[in-house]
Each structure stands twice: as structure tokens, then as C-alpha cells.
Amino acid sequence: MPYPCLHVQNLSAPFIMQVPPFKKVLLEALPYVDFLFGNETEAAAFAESEGWDAKDLDQVALKVSSEGCAVALHVHLWTCSHVCITPCIQF
């Protein structure tokens, strides 16, 4: 039986979402990601690339965390850091 593991991903930089081959790889991996980290700029770039309203980071976090999981019983956790403000964490 394989050892259950958690997958962690960082959005890394806004340009990842703006370069189609990089974004494609990111979107293919997201269903397997349990913890997704990003800052406000990366979250806004991701939302813009998906055609979402990037002004409300809480809504962006909710949309990303509500995407389907590929692994049963896994839950997405999105952590978005904001300069000088407590990180927003969504389940």
C-alpha cells in the first residue's frame, strides 16, 4: 500500500500564470495539490488568467480551494500571504 502523502505547491511568480505552457502544467497539477501557497500578486495573476475578479483575494482563495481534488479524502488548503496582514487561509 503506498504511503499517503501531501502535495505542496507554490505559485512561484505571476509570470507562471501568464506563460501558457507553464500555466498548463500548473493547472494539471492543481487537482493533486493539498497546500497551495502564493502572495497577493500571484493570486491576482492567477485570478486574471482564469477570468476571475482579482480584487477580492478571499474569493480567489475560495475558488481555488473549491476546485476538485483528484485524491479522495484530500482537502485543498490555499494560503495567500499579504504584506503586513495575517495570511488568508481557506479550506
What report would you give on this structure?
The chain has helices at 14-18, 20-29, 40-50, 57-65; strands spanning 8-10, 35-39, 77-82, 85-90. It is α/β, with parallel strands linked by helices and 91 residues long. It has one domain (8-90). Strands 1-2-3-4 form a four-stranded mixed β-sheet. The longest helix is centred in the middle third of the chain and has 11 residues, at 40-50. The radius of gyration is 13 Å and the shape is globular. The model has no long low-confidence stretch (mean pLDDT 75).
Question: What is the gist of this entry?
Answer:
The protein is α/β, with parallel strands linked by helices. The chain has helices at 14-18, 20-29, 40-50, 57-65, and strands at 8-10, 35-39, 77-82, 85-90. The longest helix has 11 residues, at 40-50.
Specify the oligomeric state: single chain
The helix/strand order is EHHEHHEE
Tell me the count of domains. 1
Q: Give the averaged pLDDT, no decimals.
A: 75
Radius of gyration over alpha carbons?
A: 13 Å
Into which percent range does the helicity of residues fall?
25-40%
- Measured between the Cα atoms of the first and last residue, the distance is 27 Å
Strand content: 15-25%
Largest sheet at a glance?
A: 4 strands, mixed
Summing up helix and strand content along with how strands pair, one would put the structural category as alpha/beta
Task: Please list the strands of the largest sheet in the order they lie side by side.
Answer: 1-2-3-4
Indicate the overall shape: globular
Number of helices: 4
Low-confidence blocks of residues: none
* Number of beta strands: 4
